Each structure stands twice: as C-alpha cells, then as structure tokens.
Amino acid sequence: MINLDNKVALITGSSDGIGAATALLFSSLGAKVAIVGRDQSKLDKVAAECEAKSPHNYKPVVIKADFMKDDDIRRTFEETNSVYKKLDILVNNAGVICQKAFGEPQALADFDRVMQVNVRAVILLTDLAKSQLIKAKGAIVNVSSVAGLKSNSSTWSYCMSKASLDMFTKSMASLLAPHVRVNSVNPGPVRTDIIKSMGDSNAIWDSVNQIMPLKKVADPIDIAQTIAFIASDASRNMTGSIVVSDGGFLIANPDTSNTKFE
C-alpha cells in the first residue's frame, strides 16, 4: 500500500497534466506538497483541489516560476524549504517540447530552450535539493518519456533531452545511493496540454490510438499513480530504474496492430 502521510514533496510543472494529477494524488495520500508552474490561475485551482483532497487539509506551497530562468529554479527550492524545512520527495516533471526541423533557423534556439527546461533545470534543482533529500533518505522521480528510448526526427531535441534525463537519473542513482533513491518514469502518449502545442490534438490522438496495443492513451492519473509508487517506500528496492508506462507504445507494430485473434 502506498503511504505518503506527512511526506514533503516538491512537484514541478504541476499547474496541469501529469504534475497536477501527481500533486492531487500525493495530497490525497497525506503528503504536504509544493506546486510549481507558470500559470497562476491554474496553480490556484490545483492548490484548492489539493487542500480539499488532503485528509489533513494541508495547503500547498504555490510557486509561480519560469524554469527558463535559473533564478526562478533557485527560488523554487528556497520557497519550498523556507516553509517546510525538509524535503522527502522531488518530482522533476516540468518539460517543454518543440518541433523545429533540424536545420531551420530557430532550431538551435528551440534546442537550447528544451535542454534548459528538460535537463538543466532538473540538474540545478537536484543539486539544490540533494542535502535535504539525503537527510530525509528521500526519493527523486524524474518524469522522462519514451521519446528518450525511441527516436523521432520531428522532435529530435525533445528526444535528446529525455535520453539525457534518463542518463542523469542513472548517474544520480549511483552518486546518491544509499541515501536517496533516484528513478525515472517514462510515459508514452498522455492526454495533456503539451500535445496541444504540437497542433491538432484530436488528429494526433486518432493517429496514436490506431497503433496502441492497449487501444488506450493514458490519462495523467495513470502516470501519477506510477510516480506515487516509485516515490513511496513500496518501491524501496528500486533505484536507477527507467520505468516505462506507455500502453505498449514501444512495442506497437503498425503493420499488425489491427490483427485479431479469435
């Protein structure tokens, strides 16, 4: 059974999608959470829902921050620490995606943006938080992607960032053991706002559904439940693991996806 009662968790990118679902689930399991995002109105909504779900009526620490800015990353940790004075769980979930084709004028600028948010911000925040996590014998969960395991030329920079994040996970698991467990969750397609930035989300989902072995695109709560398990003592024997939760996306074969066995 997953028990996060009175654990302190910092969850980045938690104004919507996987991060918001994780904050709500953690709150319902008794955790004290700090939520971080760029949209104040969305953060306020998530915060109210977290408080309502908390069996202890804990109010989250709410931090508006832009992880393109190192100062905002530092402030995120400082504000969390100033309130809670401890940290048991760090969920590095904030991420961005772009589809600038290799060689386009803005491709390198977009690459820098993706690597800043998806990789550098994780490195900096982990460095800031490691002392508190060591004291707590805590856990880090990095939200990566199957994009780090399977190349896609249209999202090449995003794939690179997630492959880098997976290697960072393994490196930190080795460095911080036995005090802190560090694992990665690698979702496949998930119904979140990040897909809307890529164009017609309905068309994207229709295309993805055709090849999914389980014929289901994940909802944010599906990934949040995996994060909660890995962050809890229920997974105390796990570190350095790359945990895929993708509905079978990586094993999908478009040529046989519609085959029926009677």
UniProtKB/TrEMBL annotation:
<protein>
    <submittedName>
        <fullName>Uncharacterized protein</fullName>
    </submittedName>
</protein>
<dbReference type="Pfam" id="PF13561">
    <property type="entry name" value="adh_short_C2"/>
</dbReference>
<dbReference type="GO" id="GO:0016491">
    <property type="term" value="F:oxidoreductase activity"/>
</dbReference>
<dbReference type="InterPro" id="IPR036291">
    <property type="entry name" value="NAD(P)-bd_dom_sf"/>
</dbReference>
<dbReference type="InterPro" id="IPR020904">
    <property type="entry name" value="Sc_DH/Rdtase_CS"/>
</dbReference>
<dbReference type="InterPro" id="IPR002347">
    <property type="entry name" value="SDR_fam"/>
</dbReference>
<keyword id="KW-0560">Oxidoreductase</keyword>
